[in-house]
Write a structure and sequence with these properties.
By secondary structure, the chain is mainly beta. The protein contains no helices and 8 strands. The strands form 2 sheets. Strands 3, 4, 5, 6, 7 and 8 form a 6-stranded antiparallel beta sheet that branches. A two-stranded antiparallel ribbon has the order 1-2. Strand 1 and strand 2 form a beta hairpin.
Length: 141
Amino acid sequence: MRVNYTTYDLRRSQDSLNSRTHADIMVLSHEDQGAGQTRAHPYWYARIIGIFHAMVQHTGRHSQSSEPQHMSFLWVRWYGRDLKHRAGWNAKRLHRVGFVDSDDPFAFGFLDPQHVIRGVHLIPAFSYGRTGDLLQQNSIA
């Protein structure tokens, strides 16, 4: 999948995303400022598990056309922000993210490719070690 974006110096560029080599993306968040939050984070982050294309036929009372239409969508696993970690401009630290626990009903989802802002490079924190606790044993993800 390719995503066009504008660089910091107002030039056009393109990211090439794929689920094997460059799979991390960012989208605009849909968070409201909640109680106790000083400011909602502007982005959500996800890892692409699969890129799918399908011919979809809308049926039913409110469908306007019975012709099949091409539809593209992404299957993603969401990252969650570590809210206990002080981060941002004032803290002079980058935000910390990690996979959402697979037991959470919102850990996985489908996403319209048009909502992807661009690919991101997440820096692994190897000092924290590895865990297998966030994904079930027999998961296809």
